[in-house]
Amino acid sequence: WYQRRVRGEQSVTLVLPRMYMNVGRGCVLVGMLMVLHAGLGSAHHRANLRLSEQPYDGLPVDITAQCVIGFVIACFGISKVAGEFKDISATNDLNRKTLDSITNVPSFYHFAHRGRSLHSIIYS
User: Which of 65, 72, 20, 23 is nearest to 42 (CA)?
Assistant: First the structure.
């Protein structure tokens, strides 16, 4: 929460988007650190297996769980940092536009073409 004075009056405004973005950034940082730590743990596990000449049967459950949990936390944080999602269907955006504004593309206008020279030849 923070207070802001507006023409002599006090108003209280909730700062949720900024707070959610900071929480999201923190989640991304924690998730990435967890995935990095799981990667280092798996490299350490493989090195210990090679030194003890044991066969590789896969990663321990704690390293796999740490990697998956870190990934989920990082994905949650990224979704909070990204902001509002747009609708997948384009119909919501297209319903607000007219057909003339949809088909009107000014970048396709070309005025320097051979029709100008043909016009001068035909009508001279």
Answer: 65
Per-residue pLDDT of the chain (124 residues; tens, 9 = 90+): 444 444 555 544 445 566 666 888 999 999 999 999 999 999 999 999 999 999 988 889 999 999 999 999 999 999 888 767 666 676 766 777 777 777 777 777 777 777 777 777 888 7
Whole-prediction pTM value?
Answer: 0.56
CA atoms within 13 A on the CB side of 50: 6
- CA 62, CA 56: separation in Å to the nearest integer? 16
| Measured distance CA(23)–CA(77) in Å, rounded | 7
